[in-house]
Amino acid sequence: MVSASQRAAEQRSHNLGLRMAALLAVLTIVEYIVAVSVDSSQALVLFLAPVAVVKAWVIIVYFMHVSKVWRGEGSH
Amino acid sequence: MAAAESAHIAHHVDPHSPERVRINRLGLWLFLASDALLFALFAAARFYTNGTYRPEDLKQVLGLGVTIILLVSSLTAFRAETSFQHGNVSHGRLMLLLTILLGLGFVGGVITEWNLAEFVPSEGFGTSYFSMTGMHSFHVITGIVFLIVIYVRSGRGHFSSGYTWPVSAVIIYWHFVDVVWVFFYPTLYLVK
Which of residues 90-119 of B touch A (CB under 8 A)? Predict the structure, then answer.
């Protein structure tokens, strides 16, 4: 049986996930729009590389919980 | 003597203990780091052999579509993990099932692109494209197999007692596959 406090904690986690996924979706759409509208290869690489790094960082930190590797279990 | 004692203690460490989970987690991340090097080499080879060239007939909408599918699957995987961790097994299983279906959708999209592509594996960009998407899809398929395994195990009540490390391990692997695509998508579809 799941308690009300557990449900609330689960909902908070889900909301965080939803916000991060929305951020990733926005960045992906921006990547696409810039890629189809910019012709310069150099400008594209300079724009797309940091955006990809930011997206990867969001996934690694918020979805993969990388901090648990050095902080141990129970950390978020 | 000390080594034998250590081996004896290790043999008796509870596989569900936080210390054991911590070691398992570190091992998983070391594996992912080594796997990331493989993917980085594929990406480096793509730029080395073809520069930023990409054929005009690459299906941009399909590329964006499979990217969004994989992104949504990361969200459902995240929800599955948090639901299991909070004891909500039924919702966790539903999210696992959705993740599996989205993963199959991604693989279907890649296969469609392979069939529609007008370039061939024997030409410069084709070599990079088919090897990168092929190796990535292989990881997606293995991730789907792992997801099915934990879906079946969760149905037998294996993760209802607070021990959810196997679920977390598979979900972390799934997110890793997404991270790889975060770099492969612009590398293959967007730079020009």
Answer: none
